[in-house]
Amino acid sequence: MSILTLEFLGFAAALVLVYYLAPLRARPLVLLAASGAFVACAGWQSAAHLAAAALLTWGGALGLAALRQRPRLRGCLLAVLLTLLLGTMAFIKYEDVLSSLLKADLWRLAAPLGLSYFTFQSTGYLIDVSRGKAQTAKNPLRALLFVGYFAQLPQGPISAWKELEPQLSTGHRLEPENLVAGFQLMAWGYFKKLVIADRLLPTTDALLSGEALPGWFVLGGVALYALRLYADFSGGMDVVRGLSRMLGVTLPENFRRPFFARSVAEYWRRWHITLGAWFRAYLLYPLSASRAGVGLSRLAGRAIGKKAGRTLPSALATLLVFLLIGVWHMASWNAVVYGGYFGLVMAASMLLEPVWKTMQRTLRLPKKGWMTPLRILRTILLILPAQYFAFTAGPEQGFSLLRQTFAGWNFTGFGERLTAVMPALEWIIAAAAALVLLAVDLLCEHVKDFGGRLARGTVLIRWPLLILLIAAVLVFGCYGTGYDASAFLYTQF
Amino acid sequence: MADEKGSRFRKLAAFWARTACFAVLLSAVLAYVGYVIIPKHDYGICSMVNLYRQKKNTVDVLVVGTSIAYAGVNTSVLWREQGIAAYDLCSAEQPFWVSYYTLREALKTQRPRLVLLDAKPAIYTRDYPTRGRVILSTFSILSPENRWGAIRSCVETDGEALRYLLMYPRLHSEYTDVTWNNFRLPPDNGGRGDAWKGFIEVDEVEQHSRPSFVWNSVRRPINQREEEYARRIFELCREENIPVLLVCMPNPDYANDHMYMNYLWSVAEEYGVTGINYNEPSLRYGLRYSSDFADWQHLNVKGSITFSKRLGEDLKAMFDLPDRRDDADYASYEESAAAWFDRYLTFESIGEAVRE
Fold this sequence. Notes:
heterodimer, A: mainly alpha, globular, B: alpha/beta, Rossmann fold, five-stranded parallel beta sheet, 14 helices, 45% helix, elongated
């Protein structure tokens, strides 16, 4: 069930109603039943796969807890569990690549709903249990709800057991602020997805047409793709976070205005936050702190100096992590270029940090003030090249567009070229909506808990804003007749 | 503890009261915005919109049908020549199932002496319309049961009908065609004024020749849904004791329609409904195929005048239709006819319509 459908809205309304009508103790069961129904809509294979993963996670966690005093056995069990969970995910995601590598027809498994998200969540939980950082549940239904909570299945976020599970297994009382704030967030999410992201779809298609394009057009199109991806992904996230908030469940934030980041590292702390946090907690830090990492640090310290030597293992681990993030997105060379590029930029910035600091001191560059917009611009310019490989079919196409960006900036026929992509009215609506997004992001950046404040504030401000927002989504949203509302870009991962 | 409970109860009561107010306000705003984006074409919703504005029980001949009927049955000519108070309740490509519900709706405010049913939908082969404009034409029906019935009859599933009823899922992309006129409440009917009787002139000339076909009685079954609703129309009129006249409008492309018309005529006979087929080769009343058509099926202004003169004579001969020209309750007919004849002055002299 796509969250863009009328059916989903009906499902959401019915869920909120039934949840609060049910006795307090039965409310977690309502969530479980709703999640079951949501997964069942994606097919019985999805439901069976998810139930199996949840049971494996539950049983595995109990086993790991029982082996607390026997670290070797615990390590072996954890390795087996991770291999099973991550191996299944890898097998399903990269089945085509494996088939072509092995030159054999492999057993085809249908990808269940939210495969990556529940796999990461389960494995994270098992590692936490193994490290003694998370509790186990005797009741398998708790694990089932944690792994299969419907809101996080379409495209995340990836939550930790200690943050999410206690919220799911406790019934929540109806709090007006939660209902209002959640409803607001849902409406805002639909605005971002339907009014901005889906409206910009033709701008990406125009880049993929294969014809020779002027540089400004390519650069603008790629920048609009980045905006589209942000509006699409964060919009979907706002919808599920809003619905969860209405049910009293606070899901972690997955996007914190990434285009206001002052460095690429900060960008990745603001973009797909929970995925980054997962990779940092379960891969980056363990790799950096591993025996190999420490050994490398010592060796490098002797060769290139103590400071740089200490940074090298982290930089290499970062490069590896970003390569994996890229490959997680898709099994293609584009993913390798995408991840590799970010990994190299991050590793370089880590290694060159002392140089940058010295330069800052020498030139007396301020950390804030007028430097902030320049640093934001620099970050955006560093992010953009990676986007060339996020939507193209292969590296050749990505590099070809990159070449076209610098080939010629001929502005003749500027208007005609734009209106060939979409009518002038659509450009005006897209620009107005993007300005609204910018204004709201600026407010959220500078006003703490802007959404909560609006929900608690006077209806004289909230109601007109909400009515305008809902009317804008209903009228200017790309859905229904004449539109083929594109699926969320991140559901495919 | 009791205080805490009481305070929570008051908090929740206030919240639900505010929520109810918000819901009412939101519904009102969305209803108006939805109204604004509904296309208000004269070939779509306008004839129904304007019917509500007619004085109660002042329509003697209610013409129900497709664009062929609203372009051919010239209400101004019927009025000027015979004093017949006729109203074209038609929309483009209107199938019998939409006609059925619009007729039901019309009978709430009008008590016609005759329902003139355009036979054209007999040739429609599809079970459901493929063009949204057919369904959009039903958006002018005010009563919920007839509106739902009309929409439901146009689509295959309840879910799809619900999307049309909620308007936005199916209509919102019409914002591209919104003009200031769309904001007017009550709706404007394309600047035609309240006296307008639903006739839409097609001001073009296309050369055609008289259709060549064998006037036989071979029948070809019509679409089952069209037949079902044609029967429903006949039954409704029988229940209401209103005679029906089935009319097949003159049409250069008629050769393809003849066998379907034979079938519809046979269905009509079961209900004692009579009909006139104006494509019958022996019928000669001055209609020129070379100059009286706007395209392959619609009469142009000149054709509508020639045809309507003959239609008026036939109606007078067949039914008891009073001459309303001296009746003050029917003043809007004279107003409508005067406005129309002022705009089309020289139609007879040059053989084609000339706008003033």
